[in-house]
Every structure is written in C-alpha cells, then in structure tokens.
Amino acid sequence: MTINPFELLKNFGNIQSKMGELQGKLAGVRVSGSAGGDMVKVEINGRFEVLSVLIAPEAVDPQGVSVLQDLVRAAMTDALHKVKEAIRAEVAGMTGGINLPPGFMGL
Q: Which of 10, 56, 57, 72 is least enclosed, having the fewest CB within 10 Å?
C-alpha cells in the first residue's frame, strides 16, 4: 500500500478545520451532573469549565461538611463523564464513526 503524502496533507487541513469547528461547538455544550438525589448539581461546558454549582439547603449540615464535599466531587465526576460522552459523539460525527484511540483528547 502506497501512501500519498499530498493526500495526507490535504486531509490534515480538513481535519484541522473540523477541529476548529469542534472547539467552537464545545463552548456551547452544557451538561449537568448531580449527586445525593439532586441535592448537589454541577453544570460544566465542553471546555471542562465549571459554570455553576447548586447545593440544596437541606444538604448543608455543619456536622456533615465531608459528606457535602463528597457530593460535590460526585456531581463533578458525573458532569465530566457526560461532557466526555458529548465530545465523543461530536467527534464520531466528524470522523465518520472512526473510533479514537483511548485517551485521545482526554477522552
């Protein structure tokens, strides 16, 4: 099998363009993660920026700060998992369903 370097360069430019589009779309991706029966909710975008943290008043107990910390961590983990899935779906659409190697772009 011969590889045409010019064809590779042509495709690379196309991929670069699509990656630029993807980065723009990721800014608009918003997902929410929750924990503790929705007592803690976290919203992040596709750039992994935390947009909001909502804590229900009943979740706040001066004696239970460690529980609240665990709930915030769990909600963040849930939201990050969801944004990675959204990114995978977006990239799969761009690549025609080609699976990316594990760990590619942090996914």
A: 57
